[in-house]
Amino acid sequence: MKAVAEAIRIGARDYLPAIREGLQREFHLFRREGLQIDIKEDVRGDQVFLSCLLKQERKSPLDKKEAGDLFRQLVANALATVIISHWEMALVREIVYQHYNYFNRHERERIIELALQGLMGEGKKGTEPQLYRVHRQNRVFFRLLDYLNENGEIILEGFIRFRLKDYMDELRDAVDRAVDDLMLEEEYREFIRLLRYFVEAQEPRQGEIHVLILPGNKYQLLDGQGDALSDEELEEMLADLAGGNISGEDLLISALISLAPTRLHLHLGSPLYNQEVVETIKKVFVDRIQVCPGCCLCGEREREKEERSRSKPR
To answer: Is residue 304 part of a domain?
Structure first.
């Protein structure tokens, strides 16, 4: 015979199917411990309550305390998963639409996207993105467990807003960073528009140019015949570019805009090229550019560089 050993009532208005599924999944895994957990549902006002009833067989290997501890852990884990998997996106959206309503709809949706990416650790080096989610879920789990150890009823919406204030602060911080990222994106787009205007507004000074990307973020400009580019006005700039004395990326873009070629061939000879620079050049020159993933010209220049390096006295 099984007797009800403990009960937990969960009240919620949203994501009820996900809550039911999560609870059932957790409870199913531990039936072999001689535990049965039934779920009953009732409605009170605008809240739906799921009553989880722990029933324990007398032959269960767990005593009453162990069974109760395990029961609360299962409930806390199921609810933490639902909060992170379902509520989190809705909470971020609510923060954006409440506090950043001066952005248009497209911008707000982009802020939401950037905030969620930030919460997953996208773009951050040295850490697996999934660890960010696991860390948040663990913190929510322990908050839930502490609460359930003292209370037999929980209203999820209220718990999130009043008992997870540090979690809500983390979501707000993610949204604030996303707003900053959006502003940087807007500045970058304006920068690209300005560079594109400069290119289109002036007469081309070169018909065809080949850009070779070399190891060490160095670059070389060749004319249509494959010869090193020579231009008196750009001589000093190109010398710095070839020597890598200052920011090669900035010099490269400045030189290309000044030359405004009608056709630009971009040779990605080095596998460690600066992706941001390549994307900027592609956005500025649009239909004038052709990207070469590798050709004899790329390999030839790399061999010349290696031969010069070997011939230097040691």
So the answer is: yes
pLDDT, tens digit, for every residue of 95-107?
Answer: 999 999 999 999 9
Average pLDDT for residues 112-140, to the nearest whole number?
A: 84
DSSP output for 15-34: -HHHHHHHHHHHHHTTGGGT
Domain that holds residue 306: 208-311
* pLDDT tens digit sequence for 216-227: 767 788 888 877
The pLDDT of residue 124 is 63
Q: Does residue 145 belong to any structural domain of this protein?
A: yes
Q: Are 129 and 120 in contact (CB under 8 A)?
A: yes
Q: How many CB atoms lie within 10 A of CB 143?
A: 19
- Do 154 and 47 lie in one domain? The reply is yes
Specify if 182 maps to a domain: yes
Q: Tell me which residue of 41, 47, 37, 31 sits closest to 7, measured CA to CA.
A: 37
Q: Where do we find the tokens 């639902």?
A: 82
Of 159, 188, 217, the position where a domain reaches its end is: 188
List beta partners, residue 266. Answer: 211, 291
pTM of the entire predicted model? 0.77
Q: Do 60 and 135 fall into the same domain?
A: yes
Same domain, 143 and 6: yes
pLDDT band with cut points at 50, 70 and 90 for residue 75: very high
Q: Residues 110, 113, 118, 121: is their CA dihedral positive or negative?
A: negative
Higher pLDDT, 224 or 16: 16
Structural domains counted in the chain: 2
Rounded to the nearest 10 degrees, the angle between the axes of helix 165-201 and helix 275-285 is: 50
pLDDT at residue 15, rounded to an integer = 95
Q: Are 49 and 43 in contact (CB under 8 A)?
A: yes
pLDDT, tens only, 288-302? 998 886 677 666 555
199: in domain: no
Q: How far is CA 91 from CA 113, 115, 153, 287, in A?
A: 13, 11, 23, 42
